[in-house]
Amino acid sequence: MLYLDIPYGEHQRHRLDLSLPDGRTGTLGLILYIHGGAWIGGDKDCYRVELERRNAQGYAAASINYRYVSREVDLDGEADDIAAAAVKIKSFAAEKGVNLEKALLTGHSAGGHLSLFYAYSRARSSAIEPAAVAAFCGPVDLSTRDFYEKGVQGHTPELCDLFTSCTGRQITTENFFAPELQKRLREVSPVDFISPATPPTVIAHGEIDDIVPFSQAAELDALLSRCGVTHELVSYPHSGHELGRDPDAAARAEELLCEYAGKYLS
């Protein structure tokens, strides 16, 4: 059963879709989709087909909208929205006889970042435990020179404007590498929260991505390895940010997402 536009807060963007397998009650795993759009765009509706497909595999599935970053809302605020959505998803499902204890978070681009950021930094406080992540082309370290010079196709002034909204700090091409701003950029970067307790992670990334450089995925891969975290990096050698030119890699990423869901949501 598909439930659309469930409100989970007062803002117009505080809406979620939830799909529950017909006739299933008791404890189920949740696959939670977080849309991309550079933190300033996108919509949950892009995952509607995926919700019902995951139901057929025996999972509950949800996709959420969240507030876009602005002068009033930073990335911590977007993570707060995910937390509020998790509370609503859990309570709404409980009313239908479904118990949701664990979730696999997944998304593309900004949705990949938010999936990682929330799962890595909010695991202990989340209403539904983030038990695994599958991130597609997600930024993981907003403080790095490679992102500054190559991210968003090298448009550094636009990137600084975006990061000003993401961090709630005024960031310019002149002060990007100032220590206090580097610290703030790390505070909203998933890599700053990696530990041996970090949830198992699938990383999928295009090797010729000109929006989020592939070096971001390589950095995450290395740090997860260093901490002994179960993970796998799936590289798409012929693909950019949209991951459209490597069907074998896409099949492997889907296989891993299903494998991690089966193993860590039970």
Architecture overview:
- The structure is a single chain.
- This protein has helices spanning 48-56, 75-95, 110-121, 145-150, 156-167, 179-187, 214-226, 247-264, and strands spanning 2-7, 15-19, 26-34, 60-64, 98-108, 129-136, 201-206, 231-236.
- With 266 residues, it is α/β, with parallel strands linked by helices.
- The chain has a single domain, classed as 3-Layer(aba) Sandwich (Rossmann fold), CATH 3.40.50.1820.
- It has an eight-stranded mixed β-sheet with strand order 1-2-4-3-5-6-7-8, sandwiched between helices.
- The radius of gyration is 18 Å and the shape is globular.
Key phrases:
266 residues, alpha/beta, Rossmann fold, 8-stranded mixed beta sheet, 8 helices, 8 strands, 38% helix, globular
* Average pLDDT reading: 96
Structural class: alpha/beta
Write the CATH fold name: Rossmann fold
Number of strands: 8
Strand order, largest beta sheet: 1-2-4-3-5-6-7-8
Q: What's the short story on this structure?
A:
By secondary structure, the chain is of the alpha/beta class.
SSE topology:
Blueprint: E1 2-7, E2 15-19, E3 26-34, H1 48-56, E4 60-64, H2 75-95, E5 98-108, H3 110-121, E6 129-136, H4 145-150, H5 156-167, H6 179-187, E7 201-206, H7 214-226, E8 231-236, H8 247-264
Parallel strand pairs: 3-4, 3-5, 5-6, 6-7, 7-8
Antiparallel strand pairs: 1-2, 2-4
